[in-house]
Fold these 4 entries.
Entry 1:
Amino acid sequence: EAQPSAADVGRTVEYSFDYRRAADPFGPGGASGITQTFAFIRVIDQFNNFALIDQFDFETTAATEAFQQGSLMIEIIPAYQGRIFQYGFRSFATNFEPSGIYYDNIQFGDPVKFVLGDVNGDGVVNLSDVAPFVNLLSTGGFLPAADINMDGAVNLSDVSPFVQLLSGG
């Protein structure tokens, strides 16, 4: 839990983590289509019977057996000042279906600064970023620097903007 102060208003915080499904048969089930797993941040008003002010979710149900990166980034607004930030993971399952997801490298705080398109993390966008970008596309992984159109996923929609960055556009 965290409680932002007036000095934090306007600041962006990030909740980042790695996640992967447990090996079958313990990974998320799905015969009923109801099993779901999430990472979350909740903003709670402890002065009003712990009412939920806001909630942000990152769904991890479709995780593969290889670790992937996930994150939630939110800007602290005046309504969040002095309220409780609760962060964690939750799952929903029925009929005794499995919902196993492993989480690791959990961090909450200021977001890591990155250069959009710098997929290998060397500080510049160049041809050395192509192989790691293609790897993320083929594995379904996520890295904020590779999410060129900033829609929360690394997919084919990022290819054209990535090529533009490489060409200096």
Entry 2:
Amino acid sequence: MELSSLIVKSNDLLRTALESLNKSGLSTLFVTDEDEKLVGILTDGSIRRSLLSDYNLNSIVSDVMNTKFISLPINTDNSIILNSINDSVKVIPLVDEQNRLVDYASINKIRRISIASPLLTGNELAYVTDCIKTNWISSQGKYVRKFEEQFSKYHKNYPALAVCNGTVALHLALEALNIKANDEVIVPNLTFAASVNAILYTGAKPVLVDVDMNSWNISIDGIERAITSKTKAIMPVHLYGNPCEMDAILAIAKKHKLFVIEDCAEALGSFYKNQPVGVFGDVSTFSFYGNKTITTGEGGMVIFKDKNVADRAATLRDHGMVKTKRYWHEEIGYNYRLTNIQAAIGVAQFERLNEFVLAKRRIAFEYNEVLSKSKFFQIPSENENTLNSYWLYTCLIYSFAPFNRDDLIYYLNKMGIETRPVFYPIHVMPPYKDYGQDDILLNSTLISNCGISLPSSVNLSEIEITYICNTITSFLDNFVS
């Protein structure tokens, strides 16, 4: 719930306060003055008691609000907040240095800034409501087509196909290109497991290649060394929104007659040489999981350079049914379709893509400003010919730092800031041990051990960003001699 919906002004009428309580469904409102400073708390109980006295709905909030309340600074340790909540103090406002309300805590809500949360304040509700009112809620409906059209237009008008998640997008891409058992697909060792799982679904063998220490993306030299007579495709992954070196990858693919399957799950809104990622691969895939730059809850998209490949993928997505003969199956297919309701959310989200990318880049700029002042961090790269969408802002802590990644994670968590470690390298996990060797996958192992992702939600407020940056600075102050 938006914090603004829980705030009333001291000169508002009790009627206004009651309307706010009714909308919020909570029992407490925060009262601020003309300078936005917190001056009181108003509960449903205090309103009832005032109405039973000499007050009425036209009375002023300041006449009945509680001015003897407990508030705490926004940077208060969660353990102190918990200890301050009791039977008589059930809600604690959290304020900044100017006594402006930033957040609140209760027994059911301890202050926490999440790593990534969606922003659904555009046309999402209107479009979903339209689906329900018109009964178009399954995979048939105008929003699926519109979502595909948005993606196609954004990506050079290449054919686009909406699917139910990012993993099946990868699987469908591989199947449409006829990748099969005994084929080999080159993939980075540092990625989410879905990239590798999709290869294994086809019966093909993933060939794990180390990553570059600057970009954290697949090593160009590593690709060259990994090619064999069985290699059929390269799957570059634009990790955390940072585009891969696509010219070099495409040159290798052309030289060896290989397909390129571009995994853009984390990079919608990123650009390479002024072109959006996804237009370089023979087939490219996207994810709309809840933490992605735009979301449909679960969902994915596949785009194709070759219309014939796109047509085959469309058939495979729809159970293998041919388009010209209802219920006739030419081959075994899948039910990989996206619902109209999910697509409706996606359409509304895509309408704000540029806004979301700008927000993420603003967050990254502020993190970079703080972390670049310390010799202990490697901040994410952005080459001259790329635009990083910073899906999840991720940095590395150098091995010579007097603290490690887990120390920082623990401190930030204690201060109410959610973080994430970097993905495990693929080759160390049980299902994938046969596809990589420790001695040639050193960079991905190092990055995994020392990488941390910071909150990157597009709805982070300036106050929250400042709080995160100040908290990191406070942590670093412990190590200044």
Entry 3:
Amino acid sequence: MSPQVAAPTDDRAKARRELTVTVLLCAVGALVELLAAGRPWARLHGAVATTSYPGSHVAQAVRPLALVALAGAAALLATRRWGRIAVGLVIVAAGVGTAVAAVVAQAPHGSVDLPAWRVVTIVAAVPVVLAGAVAAARGYRWSVMSARYDAPGARQRVQDPDVALWDALDRGDDPTG
């Protein structure tokens, strides 16, 4: 009995699924981080009113880093092999940065710390970091966008050699020399 060899289409389908799952993990994690950044992380009870401080106020780096991770998810679809490795590393850095910003965030003086959304942010950073790590480790294997998305001038037409010969004659070039 000879071992069965996986068909190339199976490998392509597996790579496409892996890319899709990675992009979705990154996008969902980043969207949850953005959601959590807008929720209250601290509350100050005053004599007249209660003031809530959202995560974007308490940990100002969370929202921009979540946007970087979200843009990175889109960039994974648009970049090619080595570009995906670089994008994956940026996504890892954004995820780690978001988690660190959430951990070290300090509630304003005199306010009550509300840790629930901070914890959600830290948990949401996990799939972002994982997606970035997978993209950095395996992104060069994934298929790339079709050339039909390239700029019109970027694509070079493949011309039949016989037609190229006649075109050279029409221009007055000597194709034999």
Entry 4:
Amino acid sequence: MITVTPSAATHIKASAKQSNTLGMPLRIAVMKMDNGDFHYALGFDDSAREGDEIFTSEGIDIVTAPTSLSLLTGTVIDYVQLEEGKEEVIFINPNDPSQQNNKK
């Protein structure tokens, strides 16, 4: 399961409205790079593909391919201020090795 925080949901809905993609699901993908790092991608996509998994969190329909699902299970998508005046969508993913190394 993939979870969207209320802050991220507000940002995603505003982005969808601005880009005239309101009502389209948010497709999320992750690819494990050769060095083990995860590379994330997201965007609005209204074309269903065979085997897609569909979730709803905070009113956001989320679609992911089966190849990404095992790498995304348990992920939380948030929208946070990283530094003064700079907000960003972040992925809090328990499967991402780079995030596990930061745990104490």
